[in-house]
Amino acid sequence: FKTFLEFPIIQGFDRCQEVTNLRFFSPGGRECEVVCEEPLKICAREELGEFLLKEATRRGVSFFQQRVKALERKGSGWEIQTDEGNFEADFLVGADGATSLVRRQLGLWHKTDRMTLGVGYYLPQTFDRKVIVKFLSNPPGYFWVFPRRDHSSVGLCATARFLQGQALFNQLDYFIGQFLQVPIPTKVVRCGAQIPVFNRFDPHEVAGVNWSLVGDAAGLVDPITKEGIYYAIKSASLLAQAMEEKRDRLAAVGIAYSELLQQSMVRQFRRGRLLKKIFYKRFFLDRMVAAGGKH
Fold first, then answer.
1. Do 257 and 215 contact (CB within 8 A), yes or no?
2. Angle between helices 229-245 and 253-261 (to 10 degrees)
3. Which residues of 172-200 are buried (b: 16+ CB within 10 A; e: fewer)?
4. For residue range 208-234, what is the model confidence (pLDDT) as tens digits?
5. Closest C-alpha among 91, 100, 101 to residue 240
6. Of 9, 129, 170, 242, which is most buried, counting CB atoms within 10 Å of its CB?
């Protein structure tokens, strides 16, 4: 919801399912239902991405649908090598997700204990248009059901060092069969993704001379909910602001961007990292969900 409020470019995107009711379940069997004052907007990332790409090209951005193979410094700028040719750029932005090629080419790596693994299916049911979240304490994470217009995204995320993909899918299948009590279609499409987990903010790992990382590539994901779309767009907006402020000194953009990140979201991430230490403990989840049922 806050993403649509804060960024006018997204307000023209109308392929969302609005949801007001959320059901929460704790590891100990507590449950509650919360009704939001303002509806949540649930959409497919692919459709949102296509919309933003069309908006960008409509406003003058050139888009080359080519696979980047390598990056090299060239003077104060960059040479970008693709499967169809080479490009030169004054400034490099890595917006290529948790497994970012740009991040790796810069010699920066997400540590494996900072990653969360998410797996899921798209099921034909819409589950009364209610969001369902069932928290887990071991491994720490949660099952989710996010209803869309004509189907639902159903999945599970947990800390990667505890489980591998197939083990998560096995748990997800059990959840769907025993908890949701619906069949899994024979030809269902599996999906999975790595999600970075915020551990600490190092300005040298998100920006430097004539380069910056945004979104998942920079590790900017909520430590508890693993939500990243808002922070991806927010960090891109902050980078644009830094570029505008330092338009005559491109080498100073990285420092300005890092400072804006610290002012706008890093403090929140640090609070989330501290809360995460107890958030997925069984006693905390049971009490939190029980308290939600009293309102």
1. no
2. 140
3. beebbeeebeeeeeeeeeeeebbbbbbee
4. 999 999 999 999 999 999 999 999 999
5. 91
6. 242
